[in-house]
# Entry
Amino acid sequence: MPENALTRFSYREAVRDAMSQAMRRDPAVFIMGQDIAEHGGSQKVTLGMLEEFGPGRVRNSPISEMALTGAGIGAAMMGMRPIVEIMYEDFLTLAMEQLVNHAAKERYMSGGQLKVPLTVRTQGGAGWSSGAQHGQQTEGWFVGVPGLKVVYPSTPRDARGLLWSSIYDDNCVVFFEHVQLYNQREELPEELEPIPLGKARIARIGEDVTVVAIGPLVQEALAAAQQAEQEGISVEVVDPRTLQPLDEDAILESVRKTSRCVVAHEAVRRMGFGAEVAALVQEKAFDWLDAPVERVGARFTPLPFSPVLERACVPRRDQVYAAIKRTVGSE
Amino acid sequence: MAGEIKLPRLGQGMESGVIVKWLKSEGQAVEKGEPLYELDTDKVTQEVESPLAGVLLKIALPEGEAAVGTTIAYVGEEGEQVPEAPAKAAAPAPSPEPEREPGPEAVSERVTLLPAASLDGDETNGRKKASPLARRLARERGIDLGGMTGSGPEGRIVAEDVKRAAAALTPASALSASTGAVPGEVELVPLTNTRRTIARRLSEAWQAPAFQLTASVDMREVLAMRVRLRERPQDGEQPASIADFLTKACAQALIRYPGVNALWRANAIEIHHSVDIGIATATDRGLIVPVLRGCEHKSLSELALARKDLVSRTLDGSIALEELEGGTFTITNLGTFDVEQFVAVLNPPQVGIIAAGAIVERPVARAGQIEIAPMLTLTLTCDHRAVDGSVAAEFLAAVKGFLEEPGLML
# Structure
């Protein structure tokens, strides 16, 4: 087989590959979480890793997100590069004290004497009728905490390259994965290509309107863009990939080119990440805007268990398409 | 009784201005001398201070063009009533000057003819809905949003509407019809206020009976002196460029021949004894001529410093309107573009302008020998109504003499 030949990776395998490659290379990297060893995690992301790395480095934890995260912070401060998996991002609430008051603050409060190179992987999102407590999108909460970095990849390539950079970042990174993306596939080289944090990706080049989308909404935005193109509307899709630090320049450059902007995520619209992007755009690209910035996000309600109601709440291609049409005034 | 704020005349020749934006909103208190609004004249955009103190009761002209003297706002005490009606339309009041430019006139005609009802219908609390981009484009192209119908959601004026209006103001249809060109192959650049002024003033200048005199100047001494000056410790001084030597030489020659340092007026020739030289400067907004004042009193290094400051502020647009006025003579220099010689058009009411080309090495016959010398070609344009050929020739010879023996101008 030629060196660095292409292999088909699912998003799930890409995440696993980043962890495995880091663990093969570096004894300081280990993983910890609920049911991640024999069971391979609730979404089978860590399946097979116990066999390769043994129970010392693939550790099942008790059912306490606070203890699990706290242990990760301690290990990180002592020189390890732990990866902690929180089974669903809904359960990050139970680790909030550790994340917000410790992981995010120790480096600052110790004047740089302590570092917390901890990666908190978590997964979630709607689309599988998981109900109000297992399908929320919470990434926006963490973007507002100074000291935390927040990553949300939308493709296998980005997942692998960004997870690698997260593991090797000397700060705590909260790394979001979406359950609906795990089976998405992409051909990747065997050799891992790290992707720096804080760099956006232009997922599609267009002229008339910029859609800034994250997570599963990147795919939805691309589908909406294809639909809009049939009507002669040229859509650019920007995936920030890292929400904190944010690649403001990439977003602003695109909006200044297209003069219209839609922001899209699966989390509820109100106080979502998109609100921050909309504020950024009006602040720094005001004189380039030809239409109000449109926000696409979930309705302001707990996520319904009923699949029909769930679909009614969570934005997908149609909502992005409608927003695109509103910004170009051809609704 | 509430006081009216009228559009002021900020400089000679200013007939109208375009209000870009208000820095205060209705109901806000304003001090006398506090910046109140931004005004775009045909030369610069500047902040204008309030002539009155009180509460800004009403903005009669939110944005757009108005003639000098039009009431644009009322300032008074809180709750005070303001008179109804005047200055609703942005049209300049009839001016005594018979000749008007067709471009901006056409815009304002359209504005006045629009029925008031349609305006009110599209307005929200007196503010016309327009996207930020549309407003910026309108501002840049000197277009009034007042009479425009928006095609965006809820009647919002969007960029496309402004571009269409801008294209309609230029004789595009005539152009494409006569040449048979496919629409879209021709790029239409709507006239800015600056470009209109350039066009009007140069057309006026073309009416003057002008003549030109040319002289070749041996620049060996100036070049040698420039090298020596640059080698000295600078002490924060600005090293002099060729343009500064030329300015200095013209200033000294103008003092000796004040007949060239003059303005042509209707009933008199205005001779000036202070040398205020306009420096023709190419900017991305077009040709602008800031004035370097008191050149006759300035040393070479003072001239260099002042000229650099003036030109850089002209290029970035921060130059004030009054700095563009009152020149008594103009220098234009295309040497940096490798132009060897050219004829400048007068800058009225000035009666003289000198055009400098590039310094080029040429064979020169001297005392029966052929030498190679760095030569500069100067072309002086004068208004023959005010300046006779012999005076102009003496002046040009003096400039040449100073440049060939720079010690004489110290």
Q: What stands out?
A: Confidence is low (pLDDT under 50) at residues 85-123, 172-181 of chain B. The longest helix of chain B spans residues 300-316. The interface with chain A takes residues 131-136, 151-153, 156, 158-160 of chain B (CB under 8 Å).
